[in-house]
Amino acid sequence: MLAGLTWKVFLRQARRILLTALIGGLLGATLVRLGPGFGVDERELDTRLSQESRQAIRSERAADNNIGMFYVRYLKGLAKGDLGFSRSLNRPVTELLRERLPLTLGSLGYGVLGGVSIGLALALASACWRVPGSNIAPAMLAGACLAVPAAVIALLFLWMNVPGRWAIALVVFPHVYRYAKNLLVATYQSPHVLAAQAKGLSNARILFAHVFAPAAPQLAALVGISVSLAFGASIPIEVISDTPGVGQLAWKAALDRDLPLLVNITVLVALMTLVANSLADIALAAWRPDVTREAA
After folding, report:
1. In sequence order, what are the residues at sequence separation of 6 or more whose Cβ sits closer than 8 angstroms to the Cβ of residue 2?
2. What is the pTM of this model?
3. CA 9, CA 1: separation in Å to the nearest integer?
4. Residues 254, 262: Cα–Cα separation, whole Å
């Protein structure tokens, strides 16, 4: 029965991933197409070009004007494994993503793992260590990291000669800390935890059996959200630190209004976020089938 429930959750998540990625790609392409300056090419500003040369440059982007036709061609190419061609970098999109994706995934792994670990550790300390003023320092640190833009954090890390992936962790951790602290404090104040404390159960058993177990769905969702936060932070961090990852690629594509490249990056971000959330849901279904059954 457990295997059947896990398989059902897997199929539901796979269907959601497919539909969301397709809709996200279409919406991303539409936003780029309707954005100001679409169709403008810097090469047209060259006064040495003839009218025929300018017309040829405009013809290169004419195929992208009809967003419906563009997306149909994109889906047909996607079915054949062809992600299109980047005009700004003059290379196939598949090659660009193959080169840059592993570096970004490694940075995201460090950033998410570090941010979630720091956030949960400080949240747990604030929830368990009930000394007046004990949460002031973590709250001030989280507030400072929230107030400072990711680009400024990247500049500080670049000045200290520290890898930019740890800057991603500082962007992720305050969001994890604030949500996890409120969740854990509320769980510690629930009646079943108070009853367990009154019965004299050990702190470790109370923590894992009566605090973490009920909060598992929310914490699993928090990990999934951290992936999208980390990728959003990776764009300015990779640009500032000159890291050749997908974040830097997204920045260049946005500056050049490279529609094929931007659509693929939009779909990639949607897939990464949904896959992280789906893995958390599947793991939760295997660990806590009662919670998943109730949600279904």
Report:
1. 286, 289
2. 0.71
3. 12
4. 7
CA 211 to CA 116: how far, in whole Å? 17
Q: Are 84 and 77 in contact (CB under 8 A)?
A: yes
pLDDT in tens, 25-63: 777 667 666 666 555 666 666 667 667 766 666 666 666
Query: Cβ distance 167 to 135 under 8 Å?
Result: no
| Confidence class for position 293, pLDDT limits 50, 70, 90 | very low
Cβ contacts of 128 within 8 Å, gap of 6 or more: 188, 203, 207
Inform me whether the pLDDT recorded for 76 exceeds 70.
yes
CA separation for the pair 97, 267 (Å, rounded): 12
Q: How far is CA 115 from CA 91, 109, 118, 144, in A?
A: 35, 10, 5, 15
Question: Which among 175, 166, 162, 188 is positioned nearest to 116, based on CA atoms?
Answer: 175
Q: Where are the domains of the chain?
A: 2-295
pLDDT (average), residues 274-280: 73
CATH class of 2-295: mainly alpha
Mutual angle of helices 259-287 and 2-34, in 10-degree steps: 160
| Helices of type H across the chain | 2-34, 51-62, 67-79, 93-128, 136-147, 150-159, 165-188, 191-198, 203-205, 213-240, 246-256, 259-287, 289-295
Q: Are 219 and 66 in contact (CB under 8 A)?
A: no
Cα 268 to Cα 72, 165, 245, 278, distances in angstroms: 18, 19, 13, 15
Taking Cα atoms as reference points, which of 292, 233, 238, 201 lies closest to residue 8?
292
